[in-house]
Design goal:
- The structure is a single chain.
- By secondary structure, the protein is mainly β.
- It folds into 2 domains: 30-154, Immunoglobulins (Immunoglobulin-like, Sandwich), CATH 2.60.40.10; 166-248, Immunoglobulin-like, CATH 2.60.40.
- It is 5% helix and 36% strand.
- The protein has helices at residues 121-124, 134-142, and strands spanning 30-31, 48-50, 55-59, 64-70, 74-78, 85-90, 99-105, 114-120, 146-154, 166-170, 174-177, 187-191, 197-199, 206-207, 211-215, 223-230, 241-248.
- The chain has a 5-stranded mixed sheet. Strands 10-17-16-12-13 form a 5-stranded mixed sheet, with no helix packed on it. A 4-stranded antiparallel sheet has the order 2-4-7-6, with no helix packed on it.
- It is globular and about 60 Å long.
- The termini are far apart.
- Residues 231-253 are annotated as: Disordered.
- Residues 1-23 form the signal peptide.
């Protein structure tokens, strides 16, 4: 029997009961095929993150720990903050980086797929909560105040990641439609409000960590956009996410 479709039409607050049992399997890291270490810090003044990878792949229902070390206190940020468990520690192994912090991911599923940022608290505290976003954290990474890692999850039940349900853009500007897969090699199909179909394998402006980038040419480009995995799991054939996009007319100065 097919599972119910995953429609994201309203913001959802998920309350997850976490098991802290010692029986939880620990995950051995699998590197992303396109992996690099450019954002793990340590050499440009940014916090040193372990594992030193731009992305990792975890198996579903396993657990792992991300660590950061620096010469000052640090904070963690991710769009999936409801799943974050953070603990500070004294880093006695490196006098140059006496401060340490760890982030525990417990029994992961596709809901945990996201970028995780380790940020110098002195800079993080300057950003208002409503202004905290992936874009703001990427800017801190570029400035050497943060390090990041992207976590994929090989989930046997779900191929797509829950995304922000409303996207707003101005006419004649680019907008990202966050159709994101749980695994980097999954093909994602985007159906636009006017019935056009696009594949992540054939369009040039697609990033599995962000989604499809499209240009808003008219206010009629607004409406509901649908994301589907290709192919879906046989037991979840109706899987899809729905994203509402609003387009505002560009006003003349």
């Amino acid at each position: 029997m097919a599972m119910l479709p995953r429609l994201i039409l309203l913001p959802l607050l998920l309350i997850l009961r976490i098991s802290w049992s010692d029986a939880v399997p620990l995950q051995q890291f699998s590197p992303d095929p396109d992996d690099s270490i450019e954002n793990c810090g340590g050499e440009n003044g940014a916090p040193l993150m372990t594992p030193c990878k731009s992305a990792i792949i975890l198996d579903a229902q396993t657990s792992t720990t991300l660590k950061c070390e620096d010469d000052e206190p640090m904070s963690w940020w991710t769009s999936q903050s409801q799943y974050v468990h953070v603990k500070s520690f004294d880093n006695t192994e490196d006098p140059a980086r006496p401060f340490g912090t760890s982030l525990h991911l417990i029994e992961v599923t596709a809901d945990y797929v996201a970028a995780y940022y380790c940020v110098k608290t002195s800079k993080f505290s300057q950003i208002a909560k409503e202004e905290q976003s992936d874009e703001a954290m990427i800017e801190l990474v570029n400035q050497g105040y943060a390090s990041s890692i992207y976590v994929y999850v090989n989930d046997p039940d779900t191929k797509l990641v829950d995304s922000h349900n409303v996207v707003t853009a101005r006419q004649y500007t680019d907008v990202v439609i966050p159709c994101k897969p749980a695994m980097p090699d999954t093909e994602v199909l985007l159906e636009t409000s006017n019935g056009e179909m696009h594949s992540s394998k054939s369009v040039g402006r697609y990033d599995p960590q962000r989604g499809f980038t499209i240009e808003i040419r008219s206010i009629v480009d607004g409406g509901d956009y649908y994301c589907r995995p290709n192919p879906p799991f046989p037991h979840n054939e109706e899987e899809m996410t729905s994203i509402e996009k609003t387009a505002n007319r560009c006003q003349s100065p």
